[in-house]
Design goal:
This protein is of the alpha/beta class and 335 residues long. It has helices spanning 50-53, 107-110, 131-143, 160-171, 183-192, 206-211, 226-232, 264-268, 285-298, 314-322; strands at residues 3-9, 22-28, 37-45, 72-82, 92-98, 102-105, 113-114, 151-154, 175-180, 197-200, 217-222, 236-244, 272-275, 305-309, 329-333. The strands form 3 sheets. Strands 3, 4, 5, 6, 7, 14 and 15 form a 7-stranded mixed sheet that branches. Strands 10-9-8-11-12-13 form a 6-stranded parallel sheet. Helix 3 crosses helix 4 (160-171).
């Protein structure tokens, strides 16, 4: 009989007080059902989008988690038990499981997939070979349709997805402007990621800095929404494209934010704005991986891994990720 620790969502969090909303529970693992797979979790991915899953909002891209259920998120680990022949014991897998020592999943519902266990550091499957990289690749190359020589702006540019978007844009020949909070993050953008311009939204006038770009910016990879979107829209070139990846400015609220105050610029500058959600593209992963792996091997796609050890430390780690204090990809090492 194996014991399993898991985080349970007891109530909807208020702001970032996750300790009052989630509790660490223990259970004895039940037998697997037909078609289920159990994974001994090695790592948990800390992702901003899961904050909306904790809220009562029903207008998100997926229904909220029921109170009393196990907190869900992306996990990486090895199959410990299986009643699905496609996922034999010992296989390295990634999918949407639970914040737990052991995640139990139905593969088709969890997006469970076998990943390459020959990668020198398996954490890359949460980094430069993971969904953040897939998101950046789809958002920059397809949704924002960035072309060589164009200006690409990325918000939350020092985060897990933003840092990837900056590098994808650079690798595709764009000139990149990264928006991040604080001098340390801006140095990371210019010195480590090679962006052309870093804007510190905490200390700079973002709109004024963007206004200095002759002809305007051609594409915006938006992770934030809110006031930053208002700063970018009037400084876009005609026929510019906005790829809406995230709205972290709204995730702490039970109600959505008001629309952009400068929405008139969509008409004035003939802009195209498109939201996208990477689970819609999971079936195309085999298309993305060769290019991403080539960039990883060449050293032109990297990620700073911000790792905390211990399932019991998940909430503090999650709050630090949402507060913007981390650089790169935030993960929890469970096993």
């Amino acid at each position: 009989m194996t014991e399993n620790r898991f985080w349970r969502l007891d109530r909807h969090p208020e702001g970032s007080d996750f300790e009052a909303a989630l509790s660490l529970q223990t259970e004895t693992l039940p037998p697997l059902g037909e078609g289920e797979v159990r994974v001994k979790v090695g790592y948990l991915s800390m992702d901003a989008g899961t904050r909306m899953w904790m809220s009562p909002r029903t207008d998100g891209y997926q229904p909220p988690l029921p109170l009393g259920s196990k907190m869900a998120g992306l996990v990486l680990g090895h199959v410990s038990e299986s009643r699905d022949a496609a996922f034999p014991v010992g296989t390295l897998v990634r999918g949407f499981g639970q914040w737990a020592d052991y995640a139990t999943m139905v593969p088709a519902l969890a997006g469970l997939e076998i990943v390459d266990n020959t990668v020198a550091d398996i954490r890359h499957h949460f980094g430069a070979l993971g969904m953040n990289a897939w998101t950046a690749y789809v958002g920059v190359r397809e949704v924002a349709a960035v072309k060589p020589g164009e200006w690409l702006v990325v918000s939350a540019a020092a985060g897990a997805t933003g840092s990837m978007a900056c590098q994808v844009g650079r690798n595709l020949g764009a000139r990149v402007i990264g928006i991040a909070g604080g001098p340390e993050k801006c140095r990371y953008l210019t010195e480590q990621l090679g962006v052309d311009i870093a804007i510190d939204y905490k200390n700079d006038d973002v709109a004024a800095r963007l206004a200095a770009v002759e002809g305007g910016v051609h594409a915006y990879f938006d992770n934030v929404g809110g006031p930053l979107l208002d700063a970018v829209l009037p400084n876009m070139a005609h026929y510019g494209r906005v790829a809406v990846c995230g709205m972290v400015a709204a995730y702490d609220n039970d109600a959505p934010l008001p629309g952009p105050a400068r929405f008139d610029q969509v008409l004035m500058r003939r802009l195209r704005i498109e939201g996208f959600f990477i689970p819609d593209f999971l079936h195309r992963g085999a298309e993305f991986l060769p290019t991403l792996r080539e960039w990883v091997d060449a050293g032109t796609l990297t990620v700073n891994l911000d790792e905390t050890q211990g399932l019991e430390n998940t909430l503090a780690t999650y709050r630090r990720m949402l507060s913007g204090k981390a650089i790169g990809k935030v993960i929890v090492k469970v096993a």
